[in-house]
Amino acid sequence: MNLVLLGPPGAGKGTIAGIVREKLGIPHISTGDLFRAAIKNETPLGLKVKEILASGELVPDSVTVDMVKERIAQSDCKNGMILDGFPRTVYQADELAKMVKIDHVINFSLSEESVVKRLSGRRMCVSTGKIYHIIYNPPKVEGKDDDTGEPLIQRDDDKEDAIRNRLKVYQESTEPLITYYKEKGLLRTIDASAAPDAVAESFLTALNL
Ligand code: ADP
Ligand code: AMP
Description:
Helices cover 47% and strands 14% of the residues. It has 209 residues and is an alpha/beta fold. The protein has one domain (2-198): Rossmann fold (3-Layer(aba) Sandwich). The strands form two sheets. The chain has a five-stranded parallel sheet, with helices on both faces. It has a two-stranded antiparallel sheet with strand order 5-6. A hairpin with a 6-residue loop joins strand 5 (122-124) and strand 6. Helix 1 crosses helix 9 (196-206) and helix 2 packs across helix 3. The longest helix has 15 residues, at 160-174. The radius of gyration is 16 Å and the shape is globular. Adenosine-5'-diphosphate is lined by residues 9-15, 118, 121-122, 131-133, 136-137, 195-196, 199.
């Protein structure tokens, strides 16, 4: 089963993918995570996209599409995947349609006010990728990853200016995909405002699971 998670940054896509991926038995592929790993490892791709991520702009389509093509060619994707953060433009969606057949698109609906609260309190562990929130999902020990004890960081793009820019970029470039996938009969919208377990439940219900 090939799934696309749509919705504004901070709607909880990565969090819910983390909860449901084992049950679904397919990998969670986050283009944001792939870019951040490239930046951390200082690869040529990482050096190219570092400033773009920090500003909240989108990485050029051609670069993003090539990275996704390479990732989904790997054997763990043979039974499907959960795509999170891709596609983000109509061009990317058209390119994705040439690569795989998308079964469902789950649209995470959340007010802008809640998005800002979630993004500004988000913290993450760089090495494990685990996502926290200072109020809604705090670590056991303040500022430290539950599993490794490593310090948690605030993403550069979760600071105020970048958040505002990312919401603008979302509205201009990504929101049109709601209509794009609705017209293809693939879109199911869920209320992302409840607690993570309840959102995960709605997610599985939307897939008839
Ligand atoms: P996205 O992948 O859509 O950008 P994340 O999954 O990273 O969003 O979640 C953004 C922030 O909101 C994180 O700090 C996360 O802990 C928190 N969060 C995610 N889902 C919920 C929820 N259902 N209720 C409250 N906070 C949430
Ligand atoms: P995310 O972790 O999904 O919030 O993505 C973080 C950042 O990575 C975005 O603000 C973009 O700069 C970049 N990015 C992630 N996915 C894409 C994509 N599909 N197209 C272009 N840029 C992307």
